């Protein structure tokens, strides 16, 4: 069967990282994004293809560029590109699905999705009593489009009650999941240690990983001076490491465009489906803190839209900001026991750039697919406090059905409506989850 010329294709992917241990790296986040974009294609194609990019979607990072997509577009010569900024709280999955759909429809010729963070560079500069220089962009610069979340992630009463940082919330979610599974505290900690010990092994084989040491399950699950508890049962090595300098770029176009520009067919990868739930419920307002129905709904939507069952995917990378995010996704997608749940080594070891990890993971998945480590890959996404979820499936061959972006927000909202929250409760209550927070 002839390939539909409008079929979206991932024709380029590139990453950039710097690990200067004793000095400040030369590249800020913008520089990392530009470098990633310029390594997304073979050198002979860079100067001819990248200037033709007409849509750049960028994630908002820790560095406050008003329009990071414009910085990248100008640097690669794509001065006429339309730029889109996804604010914190908008999933990276949204940009990926949008890029694939735009090139499929013909409204965009070449779509570039980029993101980058240079947090380690900032920390090194501060340790040296200096300030890391950042690319300047005028405050009057504005993206052509800004994507913003539709609701708040946390409630005031949660903050007033002492909830500090994501680790506290995710530890509570872990606590409830453990209880619902009938698991003891000790067995839960052993499970977490084993999961992350395997992640460290995967990271050791990943040339882009920030940490490539292999750790034992006992070390990871037990507190020590260099691996303290943050929020029980999570130790430092079990949570996302966002003190990294990493950037990533993904280049999408139609099959017809890829052929026109002479991009070799053996480089093509095919987005099969993009699925997401943007149902936003603060943790306290959830009947079930893990919100399992959203992932199940996404799995059903994936099968219906593409005919591909997530449980049968060759390569899987489940968003790993905290262990419970991995386990809930694996349960909802029915990933078989024993199947590796990361291609990078996870956000603790490979690196968890604040608002860019999914792009890094997709680049690694693409790399492995082209190395013939499998024919399909699934990379999942989370935003907030396991608030939103999504995933992309890539394949080495054309999908049986046309790419589609599926949004199951309405279904998830119906399945898991928010509870009313009483800011000043009185009388008896039931403890749904518990954790202990640690300082220092």
Shape: globular
The number of helices is: 15
Indicate the mean pLDDT: 95
Class based on secondary structure composition and strand pairing: alpha/beta
Question: Looking at the chains present, what oligomeric state does this protein adopt?
Answer: single chain
| Largest beta sheet: strand ordering | 1-8-4-2-3-5
Q: Strand share of the residues?
A: 15-25%
Summarize the structure.
This protein is of the alpha/beta class and 440 residues long. It contains 15 helices and 13 strands.
Task: Report on the architecture of this protein.
With 440 residues, the chain is of the alpha/beta class. It has 15 helices and 13 strands. The strands form three sheets. The chain has a six-stranded mixed β-sheet with strand order 1-8-4-2-3-5, sandwiched between helices. Helix 1 crosses helix 3, helix 7 packs across helix 12 (323-333) and helix 11 (292-306) crosses helix 12 (323-333). The protein is globular, with a radius of gyration of 21 Å. The termini are far apart.
Note the main attributes of this structure:
single chain; alpha/beta; 18% strand; globular
Question: How do the strands and helices of this protein lay out in sequence?
Answer:
Elements: E1 8-17, H1 29-38, H2 43-49, E2 55-59, H3 68-75, E3 82-86, H4 92-105, E4 110-118, H5 119-127, E5 145-147, H6 156-160, H7 165-180, H8 185-204, H9 217-221, E6 229-231, E7 234-235, E8 245-254, H10 255-260, E9 270-277, H11 292-306, E10 315-317, H12 323-333, H13 346-349, H14 357-370, E11 376-383, E12 388-395, E13 404-407, H15 409-415
Parallel strand pairs: 2-3, 2-4, 3-5, 9-13, 10-11
Antiparallel strand pairs: 1-8, 4-8, 6-7, 9-12, 11-12
Helix pairs in contact: 1-3, 7-12, 11-12
């Amino acid at each position: 069967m002839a390939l539909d010329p409008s079929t979206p294709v991932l024709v380029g992917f590139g990453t950039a990282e710097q690990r200067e241990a004793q000095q400040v790296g030369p590249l800020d986040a913008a520089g990392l994004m530009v470098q990633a974009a310029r390594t997304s294609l073979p050198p002979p194609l860079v100067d001819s293809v990248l200037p033709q990019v007409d849509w750049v979607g960028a994630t908002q990072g820790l560095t406050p560029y008003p329009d990071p997509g414009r910085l990248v577009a100008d640097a690669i010569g794509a001065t006429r590109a339309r730029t889109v900024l996804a604010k914190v709280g908008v999933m990276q999955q949204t940009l990926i699905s949008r890029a694939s759909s735009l090139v499929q429809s013909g409204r965009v010729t070449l779509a570039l999705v980029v993101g980058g963070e240079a947090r380690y560079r900032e920390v090194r500069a501060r340790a040296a009593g200096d300030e890391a220089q950042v690319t300047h962009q005028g405050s009057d610069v504005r993206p052509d489009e800004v994507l913003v979340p539709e609701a708040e992630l946390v409630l005031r009463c949660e903050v007033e009650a002492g909830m500090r940082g994501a680790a506290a919330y995710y530890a509570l979610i872990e606590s409830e999941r453990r209880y619902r599974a009938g698991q003891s505290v000790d067995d839960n900690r052993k499970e977490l240690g084993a999961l992350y010990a395997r992640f460290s092994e995967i990271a050791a084989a990943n040339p882009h990983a920030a940490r490539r040491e292999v750790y034992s399950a006992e070390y990871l699950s037990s507190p020590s001076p260099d691996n303290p508890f943050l929020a029980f049962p999570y130790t430092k090595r079990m949570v996302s490491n966002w003190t990294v300098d990493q950037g990533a770029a993904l280049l999408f176009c139609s099959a017809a465009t890829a052929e026109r520009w002479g991009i070799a067919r053996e480089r093509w990868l095919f987005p099969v489906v993009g699925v997401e739930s943007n149902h936003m419920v603060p943790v306290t307002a959830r009947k079930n803190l893990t919100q399992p129905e959203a992932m199940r709904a996404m799995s059903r939507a994936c099968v219906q839209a593409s005919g591909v069952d997530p449980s049968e995917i060759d390569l899987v990378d489940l968003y790993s900001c905290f262990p419970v995010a991995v386990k809930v996704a694996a349960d909802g997608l029915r990933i078989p026991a024993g199947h590796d749940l990361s291609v990078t080594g996870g956000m603790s070891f490979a690196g968890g750039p604040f608002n860019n990890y999914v792009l890094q993971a997709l680049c690694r998945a693409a790399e492995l697919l082209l190395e013939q480590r499998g024919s399909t890959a699934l990379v999942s996404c989370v935003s907030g406090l396991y608030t939103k979820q999504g995933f992309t499936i890539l394949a080495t061959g054309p999908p049986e059905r046309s790419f589609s972006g599926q949004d199951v927000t309405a279904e998830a909202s119906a399945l898991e409506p928010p509870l009313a929250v009483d800011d000043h409760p009185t009388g008896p209550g039931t403890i749904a989850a518990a954790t202990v927070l640690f300082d220092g």
